[in-house]
Amino acid sequence: MSKTKSAADDSTELEFELIRDDLPLRLLRKIGIVPGNGLGAMRRTIFFTLLCWVPLMLWAFLSDRLSSFAGGPGLLDNVGIHVRCLIAIPALILAEAAALVVGKRIIPQFVSSGVVTAAQHGQFRNILRDVARLRDSSLPWVMVIGITIAWVIGNPTEFKSDPIFLNADGAAAFGGMWLLYFVRPVFIALLLGWLWRIVLVVILFSRIARLDLALVPSHPDRAAGLGFLEGYPAMFSLVSLGLSGIIAGGAYQSLTHGASLESLKLPLIGFVVVWLVVVLVPLLLFIPQLKACKRQALRDYGALVGAHGRLVHQRWILGEKVEDAPVLDAPELGPVADINAIFDAVKAMRTVLIGKGSIMPIVVPVLVPMLVVAATQMPVKDVLMKLAKILI
After folding, report:
1. The dihedral formed by the CA atoms of 335, 337, 343 and 347, expressed in degrees to the nearest 10
2. Distance (Å, rounded) from C-alpha 369 to C-alpha 379?
3. How far is it, in rounded angstroms, from Cα 199 to Cα 238?
4. Model's pTM, two decimal places?
5. How far apart, in whole angstroms, are the C-alpha atoms of residue 331 and residue 328?
6. Do the Cβ atoms of 186 and 89 come closer than 8 Å?
7. Which residues of 83-122 are buried (b: 16+ CB within 10 A; e: fewer)?
């Protein structure tokens, strides 16, 4: 019984949760929005979505700015605001639950796959503990709050270009103030929080990558046994959707004001590339060890294949008697075709853990909102054809 309990405790200690007891969660637990033993992601999503969006809609309704204002469009026509309140902010909150699930599935695989050996469990456990302490530290979140406040105070332009958010005297109306001093800070804080979490993953992966990992160059995942890490970007799928929604909402507003889809193509592509780089950076940290593994494996397996081939040549071509050659009879090597297949597997080993499996969880959520905007300017059939070309 005690052995079973000890094994379970050890297994738990070898897990890592990207979101658990950070400062925002501790504060929200104190006021009852988040339960004591969970993230309360759905509860927080409903709370902040309603708190961001409903006051704006009530204000617009009561001040006759809902459907039109001063001969122009009303709040209902401001797609950017609705996307921010109803898609981006909920996506950034719900992404925490998704990241928790993905992280709890991926991180333990370092141990269960044997990449981190039993002798390294202590080092691995210490790495997880150190990063967890950093995750739960208040200082990074104090900095996030400080940057958010500085951003809002230093750039109060949210409502300046839209008369719907101004009173007759040019001063900000309630909707403008709510947008600037509540909705915008909530979004910025959530976004900065996710950037901090990417930094945490960078720190975690960089320390794991410095371990002497038990890589297998002939592994069928063609990544020396680290192929499971391609599932890591799925942590950020909903974050990608939320950010892309904001970008697409802004693009749609620009299109309604006369901009062309062609003029927006470069900024949209730029966002996709930059966000891909940001999310995929942690995977690049394993390149040095993977390269060293492949370089050494090509030498070692090349020597093995050469020795095996020479012995086969001596026995079957030259007709010489070959004695004391266990390599020819080793069942794990098999015939020439099998040992050549092992060497081919080593040659095919990737040193960069970036492929379709790691890119698609980011690219698809990013493209969906943008393609919806594109569909307002071009036939849906053309949009779907472009999407099919990207995905296939």
Report:
1. -170
2. 16
3. 18
4. 0.86
5. 9
6. yes
7. bbbebbbbbbbbbbbbbbebbeebbbbbbebebbeeebee
CA-nearest of 349, 350, 334, 347 to 301 is 347
Pairwise CA distance, residues 246 & 191, whole Å: 12
* Look-up of token digits 């033993």: 37
CA distance linking residue 99 with residue 196, whole number of Å: 14
Q: How many CB atoms within 10 Å of residue 268?
A: 19
Residue 250 corresponds to which tokens in the numbers above? 């802004």
Q: Half-sphere exposure (CA, 13 Å, Cβ side) for 363? A: 14
pLDDT of amino acid 343: 81
Which pair of structure tokens corresponds to residue 227?
């192929």
pLDDT in tens, 44-89: 999 999 999 999 999 999 999 998 877 678 888 888 899 999 999 9
Q: Can you tell me the distance from the alpha carbon of 77 to that of 141, in angstroms, rounded to the nearest whole number?
A: 35
What would the pLDDT profile of 160-177 be if each residue is shown by its tens digit? 667 888 887 777 889 888
Q: Dihedral through CA 313, CA 319, CA 325, CA 331, nearest 10?
A: 70
Dig out the tokens for 261 from the structure. 């889809």
Residue 374 tokens, joined: 């594109």
At 73, list the tokens: 């469009």
Please tell me the distance from the alpha carbon of residue 147 to that of residue 192, in angstroms, as a whole number: 9
